[in-house]
Amino acid sequence: MQVTFLGHAGMYIETQHGSVLCDPFFNPAYFGSWFPFPANDQLDVEPFVNPDFLYLSHTHLDHFDEKFLRDRVSKSARVLLPDHPLGLVEKELRKLGFTEFIQTKNAVPVDIDGLKVMITALISPADGPLGDSGLCLDDGNVRIFNQNDSRPVEFEALTEFGPYDVHFLQYSGAIWYPMVYRFSQKMKDALSSKKRTTQMERAIRYAKQIGAPHIVPSAGPPCFLDDDLWYLNDFDRDPTNIFPDASVFLEMVETAGFTQGHMMIPGSVMQIGKGTATVTQPIPDDELAAIFTDKRSHLEAYKQRQQATLAAEKASWPSGQVEIFPALKEWFEPVLELADQTAVGIDDSLLLDLGTGGQIVIDFVNRTVTEWDGDSPTRFKFVIPRELVEYCIINHEEDWVNHIFLSCRFEAERRGPYNEFLYSFFKCLSAERIEYAEGFYAERDVSNQFFECEGYKVQRRCPHLKADLTRFGEVEDGILTCTLHGWQFELATGKCLTSDDRKLFSQKLDEAEASTPSKEVIASD
Ligand code: FES
User: Fold this and answer.
1) Which of 89, 248, 434, 445 has the smallest C-beta neighbourhood within 10 Å, fewest atoms?
2) Most distant pair of Cα atoms in the chain: their distance
C-alpha cells in the first residue's frame, strides 16, 4: 500500500484493489480563515483526481472542499459513505454531481472488490457537523486507520479489524476556544495551555489504544494567512497556543515511547509493508525542517501567494443586502419552537451584536427573537461581522458552526461555563436538524420516552431521525405518519411501512390505562 499525503487530512491511498482519495483540502475554508499547513498550493494534484473511491469523513469545510470536489475530482469515483443518519455527505456530494455511493454500516467491515473497508461513524450533536468518521482499510497485506479528527468509541470493532500498521490522527486544536472569548489574557493563556496539552495527550491515548507501530500526525493544524487572524499561528512553539504543529507532536510521540512517528507534508509518500513504513519526502531534509523551525518565512511566502484569493474571498461577502432582524426572526423562531431540551439546556438569552446589522436577542426561555433594548443583560453574547451573518442568511446555512464559528472571525462572552446546547443550536438551524439533536437529548431522559397515542403506548421519537412524534405524528386508520419526512408506522404492530429495517415501539394500552387526549406523554416503565 502507498499513501501520498496531500495536506491537512488529505491523502491518496493506492492499494492493489483500487485507490482512495480522502478529504482533499486545497481551497481556504471558513471565510478565508483556514489554509492547509504546510502549504499545499504548489502540489500537482493531477495524479490524485481520478480515484476509484472517494472518502469524505464529514462535511466540515476543511474536509469537504466543495470547489475542489466540484471542479477537479472525477464524478465516476465511488463514494464510501459513513453511516450518518442525516446523510449530509451524500446530500452535499449529489449537489456536486457525484452519483456512485457505497453506504457502509457503522463499524461493520465490508469487502469491496477485494479491499476491506470499515468506517466508524460518530453521530451525536457534538460530533462534527452532526457526524464525523474514521476509515479503516485492509488490502489483504497491510491495514491502516485514518482516524483524522474523529473520536471513535467502537474499540471492539476497531481492535477486531486490526492489527494496524499505520495510524493517522489529529492531535492539534481545531476550534475557536478560547481565543475568541473576551477573557483576561491571563485566563486565556491558562485555558489555552491546558487545551494544547490535553488535546495531544488525548491523541497519544488513542495511539496507544489502536497500537499501530507507525504514527502519522494529520488533520491539522490549519494556518491563518489573513492579517486579522495572523496572531493565531503557532510561530514559536508558544505553550499557550492551541495549534501546535506536527513537529511538536512527534516529540511527544517519541517521549511516550513510540519509536516510529513519521512527518508527512504535502507530497510525502509512504510505502507500507507488513510492519514497515518508509517515507520519501518531496523536498530536501533541511528545507523540510525549515518549514517548522522558520515557520514565519514559510507562512509569509504562502501569504504572498494567496493575497489575490483572500482579497476575492473578502470582496464576495455580502453587506447591506439583507434586513437581518426580520430574516432571523422568521428563520429562528420556528426552530426555537421545536427546541425543548436545547432551550432548557441554555435557559437564558444570547445577544447577537452585529454592529450595523443590529443587536438581536435570542431568548431561549421565551423562544423569541427580538431587537435588544440596549439594556437587558444576557448570559451569552456573540459579536459577529454582519457580512458573515448576511452570507448565512442568503445561503440559508443551517450550520453556523461550520461557517461562522470555525472561522474565528467573531468574539464571544459568557457568564458561567461552556454550554454545549448553545453551539448545538447553531448547528441545527432547521426542523430536521433540531429534531435530530432533540432526539438525542430526549434519550438521556428515560421518563419522557413514550406517549399515549390512540390507545397505544408509543415511543416518542421517530425511528427515522428522532422527530418528536407528539408534534410531528398524525394518525389515520391506525397508521401513524411522521410528517417530518413522511415515514409511516402501523400502530397495532409497530411495523414501519416505509423502511424494512426500522420498527416503532407500540403497545396496546388496556382501557383502564388509556386516557384522552391521545397525545399525552407517559412515564417510562
Ligand atoms: S424523522 Fe424522518 S420521518 Fe420521522
Assistant:
1) 445
2) 82
